Amino acid sequence: MGASTTSAQRDDNIEVVSTDAASGASIAPVPAMVTGAALALLLILMAVMAVLNQPWTGITLAPDEGSDHLRIVALHPDSDARLLLTVDQQVMALINPVSGDYLDLTGFVPGVEPPSLPTYAEHNALLAREGRLAAALEGTEVTLVLADGSTVKIPVHNDRPLNAMPLDFWLFNLFGTIAWTISLAVWAARPWQLPARLLAMSGAGFFFATLFNSIYLSRELALPEDVFLFLSRMNHLALAVMLVSLMALMAYYPRRLTRLSPGVPIALGLVLYQLNEQMQWIEWPLHAYYMPIMALYLIGILVAILQWHLSRDQPLDRAALKWVFLSIFIVMGLGLAIYFVPIAFTGEAVFPQAAMVGIASMLYIGFAFGVLRYRLFDLERWWFRIWVWFLGGLAVVAFDLLLITMLGVQPVVGLGVAVIAVGWLYFPLRQWAWQAMSGSARTSPENSLVEMVELISSAVPAGSTDLHWRHLLQRLYEPAGVVVNPDFLPSPRIRDNGAVMDVPLLSGKGSVALTFADRGRRLFAPGDVEHAAGMLTVSRRILRVRLAEIEAARTERDRIMRDLHDDVGGRILSLLRNAPDEKYETLARNALQSLRETMHALDENVICRLDDCIDDWHSDCLTRCREMNVPMQWRQAAKIEDMAVSIRHHINVRRILSEALTNAFRHARPDTISIEISGNDAVLSVEVINNGLGEHEAEHNVLAGRGLNHMRTRAEELGGFFSFQFFEDVARVSASIPLR
Question: Which CATH class name applies to 14-41+169-374?
Answer without folding.
Answer: mainly alpha
